[in-house]
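Protein fold
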Amino acid sequence: MEKLARKDVQALTPYLSARRLGGQGDVWLNANESPFNNEYVVNGNSLNRYSECQPEPLIRAYAEYAGVRPDQVLTSRGADESIELLIRTFCEAGEDSILFCPPTYGMYSISAETFGVVRKTVPLTEDWQLNMPEITKQIDGVKLVFVCSPNNPTGNLLNRGDIEALLEMTAGKALVVVDEAYIDFCPEASTVDLLVRYPNLAILRTMSKAFALAGLRCGFTLANTQVIQLMLKVIAPYPVPVPVTEIACQALSEVGLARMKYQVLDLCANRAYLQAGLSMLPGVQVFDGYGNYLLVKFEDAELLFTALWDNGIILRRSPIEGCIRISVGNREECEKTLTFIRQQLA
């Protein structure tokens, strides 16, 4: 059967999500999930009917939260579907390119490869910022530029001036897609205000992180109306299940938003606790993080990672040499992880 598949699919190395990598333990800090398991009520009264393609209550609620108009919002099955929709909408297979800046989220590359779209990479600078001179050299033929801020896995924010320069550079030629999956932990750094000035800006959002709804698979694209209308031409007929709309609307209610903001404050405090504790250990470098995770460099990261894994503390290997990414959990999980690492390095 493999011979029946497209050649680029045969050669494809799949994205190894946290769940695909597996592991067994009682401390799961490998997928940037929230430790909060909030309760919701689903009435299930209309499950015999198809859902709306873009449920109006959900679109309206997220538009109000994000500070945009409803016609600037598209909801999808997580931000991952938004990545695919943008590529399918704007890129001709075998002709156009996307550009992204590793180390960063791996699905930009895999989604493009799946659809036969050329991938161009311009690595981040040593301080993990956009390499603008190199991007300028590579921009010909590019239809989509993906940047992530806060960036996964490094955790840092990209310079806003560079994002604006990128938007200026690509005006009328390409879209700049700013992945803001973790922006709810630092909302002041959002680029949403730039939508007024730049018709070639698209922003990815998700409810998987700060809203503690990773299992719901609910994401959003924020963009100008023309971009949203084009994406609606290629989206599946019924992308949002009825229970997803019900739960997401509850999470975006006044009570839901207050709870989310309280939980974000709690996670930011735990992030500071982890950062302070790890920074005191010999041979450990903790990078500043603005999401719900930290990138940490150890003298022997692989040995430590294996020891943690074998003892039920499941973290995430990083593509950056010598580094481990640690999601921020509840205080008990953070204390257990820090104590184990401290004992291993003693």
